[in-house]
Structure formats: C-alpha cells, structure tokens
Amino acid sequence: MKFITRLWGSSLGKKYLMALSGIALWFFVIGHLLGNLQVFLGPDKINTYAAFLKSQPGLLWGARLGLLAMVALHVSSAISLTNLNRNARPQPYGHPRAPFGSSYASRTMMMSGLIVAAFIIYHLLHYTVQTPAVNLTGVDFSEYQEAVGTTTRHDVYRMIIIGFRHPLVSLFYIVAVGLLSLHLSHGLSSMFQSLGITRWSKTGRDCLARTAGLITFVGYASIPVAVLLGLGKEVVK
Amino acid sequence: MAQLNSNIPAGPLAQKWENHKFSSKLINPANKRKYKVIVVGAGLAGSSASATLAELGYQVENFVFHDSPRRAHSIAAQGGVNAAKNYQNDGDSVRRLFYDTIKGGDFRSREANVHRLAEVSVNIIDQCTAQGVPFAREYGGMLDNRSFGGAQVSRTFYARGQTGQQLLLGAYSALCRQIGLGSVKSHTHSEMLDLVVVDGHAKGIIVRNLRTGEVTRHAADAVVLATGGYGNVFNLSTYARGSNTTAIWRAYKRGACFANPCYTQIHPTCIPVSGDYQSKLTLMSESLRNDGRIWAPKNKGDRRSPQEIPEEERDYYLERKYPSFGNLAPRDIASRAAKQVCDEGRGVGESGLGVYLDFSDAIARLGEDKIRERYGNLFSIYREITNEDAYKTPMRIYPAVHYTMGGLWVDYNLMSNLPGLFVLGEANFSDHGANRLGASALMQGLADGYFVLPATIATYLALQDTGKRPKTEHPAFKDAELNTMADIKRMLDCKGGRTPAAFHKQLGKIMWEYCGMARSEAGLKKALQLLPQLREEYSKDLRVTGSTSTLNQSLEQAGRVVDFIELGELLCRDALAREESCGGHFREEHQEDGECKRDDDRFAHVAAWEYTGAGQTPVRNVEPLVYEEVKMATRSYK
Amino acid sequence: MKVRLKVWRQSNPGTPGAFEEHETPDINPNMSFLEMLDVVNEDLASKGQEPIAFDHDCREGICGTCSLVIDGKPHGPHQGVATCQTYMRSFSDGDMITVEPFRAAPFPIIRDLVVDRKAFDRIMQAGGFISVRTGNAPDANAIPVPKIAADLAMDAAQCIGCGACVAACKNASAMLFVSAKVSHLGLLPQGQPERQRRVLAMVEAMDKEGFGACTVTGSCEAVCPKEISLDFISRMNRDYGRSLLQGEPGRKAGASDEA
How many domains is chain A built from? Predict the structure, then answer.
C-alpha cells in the first residue's frame, strides 16, 4: 500500500509513471509507424495487415485499452504535476527570463502534449472511427472496400491516399507529428533522467532522444508528403 | 577583581586531559534530560556542541542570527584542518602538533589546552569522516594530506579549497539530525543582545527576532557562546559582513573577562584592496604557498609588469629570510615581511600595497593541469575579483585581517569567569596564543564543540539544581530586556546624519592605521583619543531608518557597530599595555632585526580585561602562563 | 559609471510589493553587485528613505546567503558564481537592471529581496545526515573510499544551499538541491546504511514543502554557482525508485542485503 501512496503521492513517483507510460506510448508510436510505412509497399500489403489486425479482436482491443490506460496515466500525471508546478510559483518574475540551459522542447512539453492530444482525437475520428464530417472530402471512408476472393476487406490504402490528398488535413498531420517529435525529443531524454538511467552521458541521451524524434518525424511525415507528391495516383484515381 | 582560576588539572602534560575527564562529574541519563543549555552560534563550534550535547541527552536551544545554521562563517575556511594522524609517516605526532602550535602561538597560549587540542585532533578527523565529509583521497582510498604554514610535516586534511564548508556541513548535518529528533530547538534569525546573569551565574539570554523585531527572554542552566571572532572591528577583513562581536561584548559588559584582545591575525595572502567602496577582502588560501613563490621587485618603485622583471631583480624575500620554512613561514611573519617590503616602496599593483605570489615555477614543474586540479577554484575566484589570469601572471596579494586569537577568557573547562557561561571556538582566547597556525581554527572549533565542552560541562551542571533554574519572570531577565529595548529605541530615535556603515568605515580606518600590523605607543595613544570621540559622535549623530517591527538591516548593523567601537578601544588599550611583540601583536618599539621581541619576564601572561562600567577604565587582570614541560624559546623559522 | 535599478520592494510578507526604480550614484566597475547595492543604500539612507533589504554574508561565494534574480537570472549574468561574485564590469553604463527576489511558494518573501529558505533546512532535518554519535567513529582510514567516489561526492557536497536552482526552475523544483545531498552521502560507504531511508525521507519532506517537480529543463544546473550536475538528479531518481521497490528498509527477513 505504501508503494502505491508513495508512487502516486510523490513528485518522483509521478515522474516514473509519466516516464513509463511515455515509453509505452513511444513503443506504440514506433509500431504504428512501421505498420503505416507499409503504404509504400502497395495496397495489398497494408490492406492485408489491416485485415489481420481486425481479425484479432482480442489483441486489437487489448492493445487499444492498454493504450487508453497509458494515455490516461500519462495525461493525469501530467495534469497533476503541472498543478504542483504552478502552485510552486504563484508569483511570476517581472523580468522576462532567459532560458538559461533549457531547450525549447523542455519548456513547451505541456503545449506540445496538448496539441498532440487534440490531434490524436481528430486522427481517431478521421481514420479509426471514420467520421465523414472530419475528413473534408465528404466521403465515408468505411465505404472503401476491396474484393478479395469471395469476401471483401476494408481498403485502407485508398483511405490513406484519399485522406491525405486534402492539403489541410496533411498540413495538420505534419504539424502534429512535428510537435510529437518535439515532445519526444525532450520526453525520451527526460524519461532516462526520471528513471535514473545514466547509462550514457546527458549529451548522449539528449542526442539519442533528438535522433529518435527526428526519425519519428521523417517517418510519419513522409506519408502525407508522398501522397501530396503523387503516391498512389496510379492505383487510386 | 575577577577570580581567574585556569583549573588546569594536575599530572604530566600528556595525561592531564585523560585524568581530567575521569575526575569530571557525570550526570545520569535520566537527569540529563532536565538540564537546558543555550548555545549561541552554529559555526563549527556551535553546531558540533549543540549536536553533541543533544546526543548526550541535554535539552539544547540553538540561536543564530542567520537564516539557517549552515551559513556561519566557518564555511569560508578554505585550506584544511590539522590533525596529528601521521598518515604520511613523516614524523608527526601529538607532541609535535602540540609543539608546533604552541611555538606558532609565540609561547602565549596555555600549555595544557594546546596539548589537549593536539590529542583530540585525531578524533576530529575520524568523526568528520564518519559523518560523510568528503576529504581528499589518494587513489588507494586513503586520506590525502597537504602542508601548511608553520609546520614541516604534512598533517593538513582538506576537501579541495572548501574544507571549512565541508566540515561545517558535517556538523550542520549532525545538528539537523538532532533538530529532526526534537532534541535541539533551533532559533534562526535570532540575535542575542544580552546575557542574563542571576546571582553571579549566566542563566539566560535576551534575543531579538530579526524578522519580526520581537524581543524575547530565554532561560537555561548554562549558556554557551560560540559566536566567532571580532575581526570586523577593522571593517575590512576576510570575515563575513555579518560576523560581529555583539554576543561576547555584551557578555563582557555583564562581567565575563575579555582576554588578549590585541592578538589579531593578519593573513598574508589576500587579494589587495582595490577601492574605498570595498566591503570585504577575499582570502587566497594559505595552501597556495605550497606551490606559489612570494616575491617583490628588488628595486624601489619598479613599475614594470612582472614578466618584464628579470629573475635577478626579484626578491623572494621569504625564501631569503627564512630558508628552512621559506614560503611556508607562519602567517604573522609572512604578513609583516610583506608590509616591510611595501613600506620600503617595493610594493606592486596600483596602490603599491601588494606583492606577487607566483606560480610560474610550479606550472613549469607540474604542468598547468596539476595546478588547476589543486587550486582551480581559488584561481577562478581570483579571476572573478581582479579580472586577471593567475596562470599567466602572478597573483597580487596583501595581508588582511583574518582571525582573532583573543576572546572571552575561559578556564580549562572552557568556562568563563562567570559561572555557567561557556565560550567555544574563535570566541574564546584559549588555544592559539598570539598567533594561530593555518588549519588550526577548524581544529579548535570542532575540538571544543565535539569533544571538550561535552566532557566538561557536566562538572558545572551537576552542581545546578534544575528545579531552581531562574524563570524568565525573574527581575534580572526583565532588566536585561528593558535595557535591550531602550538601546534599540535610542538608536532609532537618534535621527542623526550618519549611517552605521559610515561609522564602521571610520572605525576600521582608525584601527588599521593605529592598531594594524605594526603598533606603536604614540599611535595607540592617538587611537585611544579618537575612539571615545567616535563613540560620542555615534551616540549623537547616528541615523537608523525604518522601524523595529520588521526586518531592519540598518538597525542590526547599528547595534553591532557600537560594540565594535567599544571593543576597538579595549583592543588598543590591551595593545598599549602589552609592551612586547609577540605573534600577531607587533610593537614597533620591541623588535630585533624586524622580528618580534618578546618580554617573557614581564608579559608571559594572559591579560584578561574586566568591565567596570560605562566610561570607566577596565581592570587588567593577569593569568600567568606556567609552562611545565615546554621551555619558552625565541621563535625562529630561519 | 551609473546604472538604473528596477528593484522589487515589499515591506513585509503580508503586504503586496511592487517594482521601484532608482538611479545609482556614480559607481566603480570593480565593485561587486552587492557593493553597488551598499552604495545605493547609503544614498537612500542619506535621503531619509529606507534601504533595500537584501541577503548577504560571506561575500566570497560560499555561504549561500546572497540570492537575487538579476535581469531574470539567479545570481546574475555569469556562470558558476554567486551574486556576491558578480562585478559591475559585467554591466554597461546606463543599463537598466531588474533585481527581484527568488520566487517560489516555499520561499516566502520576508522583505524586499530577502526570502525565507528554511524549507531547505527542514528537508535536511528529515534525513540529510549520517547518524553517527560523537566519539563513535572508527579510524578515518579504516574504510577506504575510492578517490573517484570521494571526488564525485565532493562535487555534490559543494552545494551552498542558496536556492538558485529553485529560483531558476520554471517549476520551482528543489530537485538539484535535494539530489546533491542525497548523492553526496549515498556515494560514500559511510552513507550506505541509511541510503534508502534518507532518500525516501528527504523526497517526502521536499514534496511537503510544495516545491515543483523536475521536468529536466536543466536551468538549475545552468545557474548553480557550484555548477552541480543534473546527473545527481538522475542518481536520486534511481535511488528513490530502488527504495520504492524494496519497500520499508529492514522489515523483511528475506529482503535483499543491498541498501
């Protein structure tokens, strides 16, 4: 019991929760990226992959609930810590403060986190729930079906291509994954610090986190950029 | 006339402390709880005493004027702490540390006290190491040592250039532990303004809370003062700005004798004064003299830059005059030698008040990295202050007031002539004679607090009936409080034209000019004319702004400055009466080839001044220094 | 040279404060920042105004009493020094300098630029020590301490307890201070028996005072007059986590021996 009260009751404990849920979410971000990159391999690969996921409801919903729990943990510790931090300095300084030593990413974690969260909601409505109202094309993505033998499966490839052809949607996506990468570039390094992992030097850890952030950004952003540059125009008219 | 019984135990020197501890009274643990002890100050002596007394079971109340017990000026000691561990196998021993200290003090300290100090020095290192003081280590994991002035063995333990800080934090951590356990009650922002004496015994203090201005009374079975030295009587010194003499001065005015006030130490290696605005002089640790060589140009008025002065036109005067100790000559000697050089017109820097401390040979021999490792923080402090790079150009140094060997008179038990009043550390006079050796102040502060007082206080306390401890309603408390309030009101109501800082500055100038590194009868007499005038002006022309009900730094300073002015007068009086030169006290009339000339026939004694009332001449009591084992000799470092 | 000061004035903890502007009398570039304030205060006193209250004592960068946020940065523009070691030559003639107190809920303002940092003492009282009675210590060389450990412990032990880390942190977190003490004692063999208890107790005390949490921005390290490393925070995080997992020290017969 003391373990739980100490974990949630102390600022350090909440930072652990923040870090651990952060890692879990980061693993998802990487897994999701690898899945998405299959779009470059053509419709068959990615649609098969999507169909495989759909065929495993236990796994899918398990992962979804797990992710939801991680998000809840990440967000609730963030809110709780932010409150703590705000209360610790009720009166701000009069002189604008130089950042001395801190990175832009580290000072804007709350903002980047909030925008990313808003984006995730949009993203879920866009591609998972497939609410027609948010995709700006007026089409219902759930109607995209592909015939495979006797049955049909969801044509995820077409959904992605059509979805990203709208420049505003792509722009929002690119900005959001940019902020996510910014968030990660500090978050990952901070995760090492919060968990007390000093395996590499601080500079090394920062470098690692920034590289991971950059890779995430390039990976995710490559899809809408490629679509806007014409990816899939032969297949999807 | 005060009764001065030094209470030195009988028996051979080396066994006195053991015998004394055995014959001291004990108090059983159940009874210890009933005794209450007030400790004022939380430097090395105050913190260590508070913690240790609390461990023993006494109720302790600790008072500091700082915002935290960790701020005391012990924290600024740089070089190290001596101990006769002989880890270097270079021939050190308790007896050698004892002899070096007594000789360093120019045979003006008490033999038995100094021997005890050398004995417990080894326990200090053990204690501090166990507390987690990160002393410098060798690769094998053993403790490292360095050399210090006045010794030919390496017995100084150190933690970079921050030994005082680490020792103080060690003692502070022990104190914190006791505060956490509830056995010490800590009062911060609390300045002692008077000592309460009931039936001839010290039984309490009057305290002003510096944040709220509230004046309160505190009663106890014994009062311990560990409030440091009075070097700020010179205004410019290496002391912290807040260091003051108020606690011991007001105890003096309540009947405690003030011993050897004229024994003041001028440290040879400080950064020279750069202007009239200066508030503080910064010490460059004596440890620098391990590798730095001190020199001045041979020719008068040589204004060339140090690099342009060829080797043969440099005078390494310490190495020339004192070949066996060289740059590690004791502080008083090194300071006076620097003054002589400057008086001859050979000083360097804009003011001509400075000599060079040159590391070029050491850098050539050991490499810049090694020097950086040893003294890097000192070099960077020097750079911050002077904007000069000491790796490239020699440091300029000049002596500055650094320590006061004098203080309240105490017996072997560290009790003053007022029963129940104990005085520890720099605030007492006991162990350094007329000159303190480097790395011995930390040793004494901790010896007094950890080992001596806890063993000796019981002898006094055992005779006190805790049931009869005076209550704070006692008239003596009321009088003292009213007195304090009246003083505060007088300062606020004066509404004159000059601030406390202006008076302090003027006092400092008088003291440095007439009672500084060299003193003469004519100069001291002049000072004894000027100081009463200054005291008079102070009472008429002081300006203190603000009120007493909030933090008021101007009021705090006003109270401290008047004590310094009065103490300054006593200091000059003592210097005038001591017609000899010894250690830090140099009378121009008494010298031989520029060296101190002692007069053991007339002055082999402690002068303990007794207050006789405002405006009255104090009485000079004498405690003869009886040496049973050591022979007083002419001190030679040649 | 002369500078203009925009300085925070507040007569006591209860009343709200405000900035006040003052022009300094002629000052020397070799003055320290505090000596400049001395001069301003003498000037104010001569005009019958109340001097600016500010904390200071040793004036050589070791006692940790001086504070001040100068132009938005604790201890002024230079790295690795305290306010008392900041010299006026770092500023130019005619500069407008903003001087504020350290701001954090656990550091209430006492007057003007003076804040109450007793929260630090209370954290120390919770566990910032090695419990050893006077006179009980073994010979100092009985337990060898590797030079590397001793040096690293010293790096942490240098902390002067000034509170600049709290003042600089956007969250007013005290992690650098607490971790320096936890690491100093945790690195030495003498500190092992209480290592677990210490970190739990000190973190609990720290949280109780109302300091913010660490978001690893690194501002604390950047303004620390002793340049104490952020890595000590990491070390404390590890110690705390390990102590959490191991539960109450010494309660289980089967618990690991490692402290």
Answer: 1
Q: What chains are in contact with A, requiring at least 3 Cβ pairs below 8 Å?
A: C
Q: Averaged over A109-136, what is the pLDDT?
A: 94
Which chain C residue has the Cα nearest residue A95? C72
Query: What would the pLDDT profile of A36-91 be if each residue is shown by its tens digit?
Result: 999 999 999 999 999 999 999 999 999 999 999 999 999 999 999 999 999 999 99
How near does any CA of chain B get to the CA of C65, in Å? 7
In a domain, A161, yes or no: yes
Q: Nearest-CA distance from B159 to chain C in Å? A: 7
Residues of chain C numbered 9-38 and touching chain A (CB < 8 Å)? 19
Examine the residue annotation and report whether B331 is marked as an active-site residue of this protein: yes
Domain containing residue B346: 266-401
Residues of C in contact with B188 (CB under 8 A): 118, 121
Give the domain extent around A35. Answer: 8-87+108-228
Per-residue pLDDT of B311-363, as tens digits, reads: 999 999 999 999 999 999 988 899 999 999 999 999 999 889 999 999 999 99
In tens, the pLDDT along B148-162 reads 888 889 999 999 889
pLDDT confidence of residue B637: 83
Amino acid at A161: I
Q: How many domains does chain B have?
A: 2
- Sort out which chain B residues have CB atoms less than 8 A from C89's CB and list them: 387
Counted across chains A and C, CB pairs separated by less than 8 A come out at 150
**Average pLDDT over every residue of C130-138:** 94
- Considering only residues B163 and A96, tell me which one the structure prediction assigns the higher pLDDT: B163
CATH number at residue A159: 1.20.1300
Q: Which CATH superfamily is domain C4-111 in?
A: Beta-grasp domain (3.10.20.30)
Would residue B551 count as lying in a domain?
yes
Paired sense of beta strands B36-40 and B59-63, if any: parallel
The reply to whether A237 falls in a domain is no
Mark yes or no for CB contact A95/C98 under 8 Å.
yes
CA distance C226 to chain A (A): 15
Report if residue A146 sits inside a domain: yes
**Structural domain includes residue B455:** no
Query: ipTM score here?
Result: 0.96
CATH code of the domain in which B379 resides: 3.90.700.10
User: Residue B179's closest chain C neighbor by CA?
Assistant: C125
Interface contact flag, C188 B87, Cβ < 8 Å: no
Sign of CA dihedral A34, A37, A43, A47: positive
Fold that domain C117-246 belongs to in CATH: Fumarate Reductase Iron-sulfur Protein; Chain B, domain 2 (1.10.1060)
Interchain CB distance below 8 Å, B76 and C132:
no
* 3-class DSSP string for chain A: CHHHHHHHHCHHHHHHHHHHHHHHHHHHHHHHHHHHHHHHHCHHHHHHHHHHHHCCHHHHHHHHHHHHHHHHHHHHHHHHHHHHHHHHCCCCCCCCCCCCCCCHHHHCHHHHHHHHHHHHHHHHHHHHCCCHHHCCCCCCHHHCEEEECCEEEECHHHHHHHHHHCHHHHHHHHHHHHHHHHHHHHHHHHHHHHCCCCCCCHHHHHHHHHHHHHHHHHHHHHHHHHHHCCCCCCCCC
- Grouping H, G, I as helix, E, B as strand and the rest as coil, residue B270 is strand
Query: Does the pLDDT of residue B238 top 70, yes or no?
Result: yes
Model confidence at B287, pLDDT cuts 50, 70, 90, reads confident
If we measure between CA atoms, which residue out of B185, B249, B204, B187 comes closest to residue B478?
B204
Mean pLDDT across chain B, nearest whole number? 95
All structural domains of chain C with their residue ranges: 4-111, 117-246
Which listed residue (B331, B346, B396, B519) is catalytic? B331
Contact present, C and B (at least 3 Cβ pairs less than 8 Å): yes
Chains A and C touch (3+ CB pairs under 8 A): yes
Give the pLDDT confidence score for residue C259 in this predicted structure: 40
Which pLDDT belongs to residue B204? 98
pLDDT at residue A149, rounded to an integer: 85
Which of B125, B132, B240 lies at the smallest CB-CB distance from C191?
Answer: B132
